[in-house]
Amino acid sequence: MTIQDIWQCFNMGEATLNTNGEPTGMKPPLCLVEQYLKANWRKGPNERKAWERFREIPEFIDGAVTQRGRTPSEAVKELEMLRVEPGKHNLLGTSALVAKLKENRRQAAKNSSIPTPPSSSPPPTSPPHSSSAPTAPLTTSPSSINKRRAPAYGARPRAKRAKTS
C-alpha cells in the first residue's frame, strides 16, 4: 500500500471489487469504524499491533493538516520524502516509515520537555483579587490529591470519545 492508499482507506474508505475487478461499492472509512466500534473490532494482539502501525501514518497526516495548516496532499508528499533514504535505491517500507515517525515524535516530545533556563524578565503579576468576594480556605483531603506523573515522551494524543446517549 502506498501512503496515499493508506490515507484514502482511513479517510474515505476502500472500494469493494467483484470477481472481474470492477468496483461495486465502498467499505466505510476506518476512522468511522474506530469512532463507532472503539477497540471492539480488533480483539487479538496481532490485530491491535497492525492497527497501531497502520494508524501512525493517518495521524501524522491529520496532525499536519490541523496543527501545521497543510493540505493532506502536502502531508502525503512529506511522508513520501521521509521514505527516501540517502544512498539507497529503494524506498522505506511502511513499517520502517512508521518506526521513523515514532522516533521523530519521541525526539520532538523529549526536546519539548527539556526545561528552558529562566529568563531575566520579572515574573508576571497576578491580577488583583476583588476584596468583596470571600476567599475559601485551602484544604486538601486525601481523596483530592492526585498522583504526580512524569510526562510521557512521544505519547499519542487520546481520541475524543463521542457521547452515545
TrEMBL record:
Domain Transcription activator GCR1-like: 3-83
Stretches with biased composition (Low complexity): 128-144
Origin: domain of life: Eukaryota
Region of interest (Disordered), ranges: 103-165
Segments of skewed composition (Pro residues): 115-127
Name of this protein: Transcription activator GCR1-like domain-containing protein
